[in-house]
Every structure is written in C-alpha cells, then in structure tokens.
Amino acid sequence: MGDNSNAKKVYKEVLSLAPNDGFAKVHYGFILKAENKIAESIPFLKEGLETGDPGTDDGRFYFHLGDAMQRIGDKEAYKWYELGHQRGHFASVWQRSLYNVNGLKAQPWWTAKETGNTELVK
C-alpha cells in the first residue's frame, strides 16, 4: 500500500502470467492513471471492470475510468458513472463521491429546517 512503483512491477508481472486477471488489470490501470498516463490507463480499468472478478467492483475504479475517459473527451464516461451508481458506489451519476455518509441525503439545496440548524442559517 502506498508504494505504486513496486506495486506496478508486481501487477505487470501478474499480467504477463495471467493476462486476463481483472484484479491485476484494474489496479495496474489505477496506477497508470496516478502516473498521469490517462489514455494508457483506460483499457486496463475498463477490461478489469468488465471481468467482474472479485475485488474489481470498487467505486474507485468506476470513478477513475470515467474520469480518464472524460479527460480524453470520450462520452462513454457517463456509462461507467451510471454503472457505478447502479452498483451503489455513487449517490448519482452527478454525485460521485467515494466518501459517503450513511443516511446523508444527496440533494443540491437544503431548506433551513432540513439542516437541523434553522437559527444558525437564519
């Protein structure tokens, strides 16, 4: 954890031995994107998610695949955001936070009463 340089070597080796390993693909793609190799990361993230292998259904991978696609102008990004939403990773296609609070309602505007701090808001 936190050592992308060595992790990259490990995942690259895993993929040389098991080229269809979805877990290795999403993690390798994640590392490539962290290195700002945006276009290069996309096939690994996409193919890894498509495998459905254990450990691939993670909001980080849906988020970073969609983000990478948006950065290169690929409109398919929203397909992945929608799928991430359907899988329960995002509050909506437009609210893609990976750090959600259970019970916190996702909405763009709150009335003073809904905040629970009516006097402070006034």
UniProtKB/TrEMBL annotation:
Pfam families: TPR_8. One of its GO terms (cellular component) is endoplasmic reticulum. SUPFAM superfamilies: TPR-like. InterPro entries: ASPH, TPR-like_helical_dom_sf, TPR_rpt. GO terms for molecular function: peptidyl-aspartic acid 3-dioxygenase activity. PANTHER family: ASPARTYL/ASPARAGINYL BETA-HYDROXYLASE, ASPARTYL_ASPARAGINYL BETA-HYDROXYLASE. This is Uncharacterized protein. It comes from Sphenodon punctatus (Tuatara).
